[in-house]
Amino acid sequence: MGSLSELFAPESVAVVGATDREGSVGRAILTNLRDDFDGRIVPVNPGRESVLGFDCYPDVGSVPDGPPDLAVVVVPPDIAVDAVREAGESGVRNVVVITAGFSETGGEGAGRERDLVAVAEEYDLSLVGPNSLGVMSTPVGMNATFGPENATPGSLSFMSQSGAFITAVLDWANDQDLGFNDVVSLGNEAVLDETDLIEHWGDDPDTDVIIGYLEGIDDGRAFIETAREVTDDTPIVLVKSGRTDAGAQAASSHTGSIAGSDEAYEAGLEQAGVQRVETVQELFDYARALSGQPLPERDDVAVVTNAGGPGVMATDAIGDSRLSLASFSDGTIDALQDALPDEANVYNPVDTIGDADVERFHEAIDVALGDDGVGAAVVVSAPTAVLEFEDLAEAVVDLQARHGKPVVTCLMGGESTEPAADVLRESGIPNYFDPARGVRSLEALSGYRDVRTTEVEPPAEFDGDRERAREILERAERRGDNRLGVEAMGLLDAYGIPTPEGDVVDDPADAVAVAQSIDGPVVMKIVSPDILHKSDIGGVKVGVENEAVHDAYEDLVTRARNYQPEANVLGVQVQEMADLEEGTETIVGMNRDPQFGPLVLFGLGGISVEVIEDTTVRVAPLGRDEAAAMVDEIEAAPLLRGARGRTPADEDAVVETIQRLSQLVTDFPAILELDINPLVAGPDGARAVDIRLTVDTDTL
Ligand code: ADP
Ligand code: MG
């Protein structure tokens, strides 16, 4: 597949299946193209000589002057694949398949889609769809969709897995004066998908911000890698729907995409540097700020207002955000004192009071933005008799440009704000009635600045003993079971994850021998793939003295038999005690996501894990910074750092364990799930005292 530039800037477009029949998709597309398109429009239909005044050709091959740059296919599903093949044979390289009746209908449609993919591969086609509303590209005036609305030109490039969402958004955005560069309805994504588009738009000078509505991401790993690079220069803001479980089911029946778990998306999108939003309003609020304003160098915000209440609202919104209220320098305070009347508040939020005219406002904003400790400003104004909103808007535009710091405004009013809003809009300054929305826009800028400035470190390579690990995993296969428990502790050892001394034995006398070789009392655990939660059945004995080991062995086996007579009991593990006085029980685990691959989890562990949900996930493999961030972001992080007079745990050891586990599960795709619970994190290191995992013996 080559570059996508020709797809978006074709000189000629064929509409295969064009007709002038009222109400037909073919007619709608032709009409939309005719509106504005700079290039040549060629209807293709064997049954007509001309359509809507354009010369019509029986097939793409007979179009004079070489193959069209783009073919838009609207013929019925049973002949759509042949139509695409014919276009490919004639030398067309870019195709948009509008026709529905492919994988979204299952059965026969799925087979048809496979055929379509094969044809696309054979002719190396850049193909959008099938089941797409079409594509638009405003620089060449191309609206090759059958939607009712044309996009206003601008710098946002927009992709959507739902065609209906595009028509709704365009209808709405045109009222908001939001402009688009390219718009793509992805349809079933048989060939081109969201990753291909962000890659293209990442290199497109006409795209300032990439926005999208996605229900699923097929290859999460590829998406993360591409998005990470793209977001170095171009922000990406996405609505990912299918958030709740009920939503996820609706999504999978909608486009036939299997939605991954929401945790995976949350982590994956964040790691990709993508800003995820919840609503269409937020999507465009973010996009507007990112395309119109510079990024703040710091998160300290100045609020300048003529009204106390709304100023407090802005201040509260800042408090709820990742931003903070700037504290002014002495020089700033002096200057504000000079500029403002005595009753004014010269501390942040600056209140210029109700009788402020535009000069006073101008001066206050100028001084605040001039403070080196200020990264951005929110200007809040209620309507008053002494202030013309339009003048204020012009002052803000001028000051924003002069200081080069991001500014948002909240001109609080109805229709009276319109002319001022136009002035602001033209200069890319977001203006909202609600101060909270203005603050959120600044937050988007701050979030994206971090994406741009954070260097994502490649995962460190740890030397794992792969041979030994494989040998242990193969035991599951030999046993005809895909679950492994503490008998697989060696797996951790093979990857340098510390475990307590110990062994699995199948005889009480051997248990005594192992216990005697370990200092102090021991822990004994039943070992059986059929008993996943050992302590639930009394299968874990802690603090067993040497003389009690023999009886404890018999007792554990009896308990297992009573619990489940057919349980496959492999024996008993005799293990050195970990210090739970000084150490904290944490969990490190992995679950394989269908879209993103291995997801690594870290959190508070032990038996409390099911009661207190305090965990975080990332897509593996992980760099050190990402692993460290995981440890940092759980609620219980202070516990590890020595809360209540305890000695702080060796955090580096925990971070390294997360990285080593990440490496293990990346090296062995056959590991489907794995839990180290607990990983005891103490002052002198972290030790894994329990493990369980599931192996896909077929891929081993
Ligand atoms: P399971 O999770 O199957 O119940 P574990 O091996 O995790 O079995 O043991 C349950 C609990 O017993 C642990 O959460 C921990 O509190 C305690 N425990 C297990 N092994 C040790 C050990 N070596 N030292 C100290 N406590 C342990
Ligand atoms: Mg456990």
Describe this structure as you would to a colleague:
With 700 residues, the chain is of the alpha/beta class. 38% of the residues lie in helices and 21% in strands. Helix 3 packs parallel to helix 4 and helix 11 runs parallel beside helix 16 (435-453). Bound molecules: adenosine-5'-diphosphate (ADP) and magnesium ion (MG). Magnesium ion is lined by residues 677, 690.
Oligomer: single chain
How does the helix and strand content classify structurally?
A: alpha/beta
What fraction of residues sit in β-strands? 15-25%
The CATH architecture assignment of the largest domain turns out to be 3-Layer(aba) Sandwich
- Find the count of extended strands (DSSP E, 2+ residues): 30
Number of helices: 23
